[in-house]
Design brief:
The protein has 463 residues and is of the alpha+beta class. The protein has three domains: 2-104, Beta-Lactamase; 136-238, PAS domain (Beta-Lactamase), CATH 3.30.450; 245-459, 2-Layer Sandwich (Heat Shock Protein 90). The chain has helices spanning 15-21, 32-36, 42-54, 106-135, 154-160, 181-192, 240-283, 288-313, 322-337, 357-377, 421-432, and strands at residues 2-4, 10-13, 58-60, 82-90, 96-104, 139-143, 149-152, 199-206, 212-222, 231-238, 319-321, 344-350, 354-356, 385-394, 397-404, 435-441, 445-451. The longest helix has 44 residues, at 240-283. It is rod-shaped, with a radius of gyration of 49 Å.
């Protein structure tokens, strides 16, 4: 607090002022201009003169720069922000005096300055956000919870061949193709029920030209803090080119699938024709050995034809299930060899094992040879017998077993060292599917084929 007499001289300079003014002399009897010189704000001098000469009181804000008086903080030494009230008074003799009431506003000013800078930063952030949304290469929209749009950028308008203003006040639902609106409703209900979680949908929107445009919409419900009205922000990206390419690829795959099925069908038919020709030739021959050889060859052709038939019928054009193939193959071979008429009981236990064409054909020929060998030779002199065929998964591969309870092999006989064409074929075909053959003969014969060339999951081609 400072009290000035009618001539502007200091008559009171309290302790607080002395601590913050840093004067080298006693201020009493001096004018403010004499004490502070050029460091004194001119506005303060004018206000003091108004109070002393005209009796006008006034207030100088802490925002005044430079501050009214050169006062300094005791802690930091920096110039203080302060406000000054200049009050005109009359003393007992009727003389005008001026009372300066100084209030330290440094901390308040600092807080106000922080708030001011924060407000400016928010304004700048909002400006940049607006500019970012406006110039974003992807469509952007802001909607209320009823899907009514309050903002749309140029990229979104460009997707549909319209202007940004055409979106404002209109539900984005109205732009959705009628056939996709039920899915869009479900999409909106889902995202509105889960604030803060982005959801995505691919739908068709109506272009102003009348043609639908495929877009991918990514939307998130935003619930602001402090009771702010919830809203939905959407990103809309045109995927029309991608969809057109997908349709072209799908059409090409469908055409390829049709052609591939036709190839399998024709190969199967051609193999059946060859089988029929072999059977016709067999019936015309009198030499029993030649007839048997042709019959064996016909069965081999038949096993290959069955592979192509299975592929033709399959939903996966590149692979077949060997367990299903085995069931049909065993039925065919048993019928051709008359296994049931000979009192032989053939059983099958098979795990689901997928294989491609390059594995299925050698596999079928191997099974045909081993089964034919068992039916023809394992039960000589007997009226009944049992043949068991097993296929099991084994790690990344599989194991085929053909076991009979027949006479087995004579001691010292190595089956794969014999002159039998069928067993030579088995050994050769096994190498084509990365297989290893082994045989044991105890209470009958047991052939085992362990192979690893199977279809991978990625090789499956859906129909």
């Amino acid at each position: 607090m400072v009290l000035l007499d009618e001539r502007g001289r200091v008559s009171l300079f309290n302790r607080w002022m002395r601590e913050h003014a840093r004067l080298a002399c006693d201020p009493l009897g001096h004018t403010l201009e004499g004490l502070f010189g050029l460091a004194l704000n001119r506005r303060l001098l004018q206000s003091v003169q108004q109070a002393l000469h005209r009796g006008h009181s006034s207030r100088l804000s802490s925002a005044l720069h430079p501050s009214p008086l050169p006062l300094f903080s005791r802690d930091t030494g920096e110039r203080m922000r302060h406000a000054v009230d200049i009050v005109a008074l009359l003393d007992a003799q009727g003389q005008r005096n001026g009372l300066l009431q100084v209030r330290d506003m440094t901390e308040s000013y600092r807080r106000e300055e922080v708030l001011r800078r924060q407000a400016l930063a928010i304004q700048e952030s909002e400006r940049r956000l607006g500019a970012t949304l406006a110039h974003a290469p992807i469509g952007m929209a802001v909607c209320d919870l009823d899907d009514v749009c309050s903002y749309a950028n140029h990229a979104l308008a460009n997707i549909l061949g319209t202007s940004e203003q055409d979106f404002v006040g209109v539900p984005t639902f109205s732009w959705v193709h009628p056939d996709d609106r039920p899915r869009h409703r479900e999409f909106l209900a889902t995202l509105l029920a889960a604030p803060g979680i982005p959801f995505q949908i691919e739908v068709r929107w109506n272009h102003t030209s009348g043609h639908p445009v495929w877009v991918r919409v990514t939307a998130t419900r935003v619930d602001g803090a402090g009771g702010e009205t919830p809203y939905v922000i959407k990103q809309i990206e045109s995927i029309n080119d991608r969809k057109q390419k997908e349709q072209q690829i799908a059409a090409a795959l469908a055409e390829k699938e049709t052609l591939l099925r036709e190839v399998y069908h024709r190969v199967k038919n051609n193999l059946q024709v060859i089988q029929s020709l072999l059977n016709l030739k067999r019936r015309s021959m009198s030499d029993e050995a030649a007839r048997d050889a042709l019959a064996e060859t016909a069965e081999r052709v038949r096993s290959m034809a069955l592979v192509h038939e299975k592929l033709y019928q399959s939903n996966q054009l590149s692979v077949i299930d060997l367990s299903e193939y085995l069931a049909d193959l065993l039925a065919q071979v048993n019928e051709a060899l008359g296994a049931r008429a000979k009192g032989l009981h053939v059983t099958l236990e098979a795990d689901p094992v997928k294989a491609d064409l390059n594995t299925a054909v050698p596999f079928g020929l191997i099974v045909t040879e081993l089964l034919s060998n068992a039916v023809k030779h394992a039960f000589a002199g007997r009226k009944s017998g049992h043949i068991q065929v097993r296929l099991q998964r084994a790690g990344a591969g599989a194991v085929l077993e053909v076991v009979d309870d027949g006479v087995g092999f004579a001691p010292g006989v190595e089956p794969f060292q014999s002159q039998s064409l069928g067993l030579k074929l088995v050994s050769s075909l096994a190498s084509q599917i990365d297989g290893r053959c082994s045989v044991t003969s105890q209470g009958g014969a047991r052939f085992e084929l362990a192979f690893s060339r199977l279809a991978l999951e990625g090789d499956n081609v859906p129909a």
